[in-house]
Write a structure and sequence with these properties.
There is one protein chain. The chain is built from 7 helices and 12 strands. It is an alpha/beta fold. It has a single domain, classed as Rossmann fold. The strands form 3 sheets. The chain has an 8-stranded mixed sheet, sandwiched between helices. Helix 6 links the parallel strand 11 and strand 12. Helix 1 packs across helix 7 and helix 2 runs parallel beside helix 4. It starts with 15 loop residues before the first strand and ends in an 8-residue tail after the last helix.
Length: 268
């Protein structure tokens, strides 16, 4: 029997759903993808920690699978996954992504772009998190934020800007510079925050990524390591043989264990 791709029925991830949000803060439309673990329906009094990730249009299924696999191994507890993606009839993923994730504007004239990170962070704080915490049984004492590339940059920006909004971070292959310009210009001024922050940061990069990205991640790690407090738990990995996108499976896998492993409960 010959099966044509166009005749295949659509596969949907069990225990997942989509919320549509149109934000006045950013002027863009979003899809908020949510996955809950199997026990969610069986234990109506139980609350769950949450991981929020960026670029849900690419990474939702990857991170969902990693959560399930790590829980099956007893490495992490059950958690709720929330992925922020782009909505509307014809979402311009890259255009909106660049605007939302970059803390500063880059380019000149018609090529000027970015600078929307402050509004995007407030969108997450004022619209996404309240939606999730009013709609799902969430343990609001432990929130995690994760992202890759521009999403990794934004994750670090959020850590440095809204230090109490999230309790742990997974930053993968962060784009810390663009055409030689630092995208976190106030990075060094946050040394005092690193000395007092009680948080967890998993920072990773593939060794086959651009030298700019690899060296930028290494420099950030050394800077944070040199000034952080004992309550700032930090782990950095350069993943052998992995490129900018291919490293995400292993990186999220390791990052999840780092940010949730201390909360794990024995699997019955």
């Amino acid at each position: 029997m010959s099966v044509q791709a166009g005749n295949l029925s659509r596969y949907e991830i069990p225990n997942s759903g989509v919320h549509q949000l149109s934000s006045e803060l950013t002027g863009s439309d979003y899809e908020i993808l949510v996955w809950v673990p199997n026990s969610y329906a069986k234990e109506p009094e139980r609350k769950y920690p949450v991981i929020y990730i960026l670029d849900g249009q690419w990474d939702f299924s990857n991170v969902e699978a990693s959560i399930r696999n790590n829980f099956a191994d007893g490495a992490i507890p059950e958690v709720i996954l929330v992925a922020i993606s782009f909505g509307g009839e014809t979402p311009e993923h890259m255009k909106i992504r660049v605007h939302d994730c970059l803390p500063i504007e880059i380019g000149e004239g018609d090529s000027l772009r970015g600078g929307g990170a402050p509004q995007f962070l407030q969108f997450i704080k004022q619209e996404v998190i309240p939606l999730i915490e009013s709609s799902y049984r969430v343990d609001d004492s432990y929130r995690v934020l994760g992202g890759c590339s521009l999403g990794g940059l934004f994750t670090l920006y959020a850590m440095m800007t809204e230090t109490g909004l999230f309790d742990a971070y997974i930053a993968l292959g962060p784009s810390l510079s663009w055409h030689g310009r630092s995208l976190l210009p106030e990075q060094k001024s946050h040394a005092e925050k690193f000395q007092s922050m009680k948080t967890r940061l998993w920072l990773g990069v593939g060794d086959q990524d651009s030298s700019r990205t690899v060296e930028g991640a290494k420099a950030l790690y050394e800077e944070v390591r040199s000034v952080k407090s004992d309550d700032f738990q930090l782990e950095f990995r350069v993943l052998e043989g992995e490129g900018h996108s291919g490293m995400k499976a292993e990186a999220y896998n390791r990052g999840l264990r780092f940010v949730f492993g201390h909360l794990k409960k024995p699997v019955e």
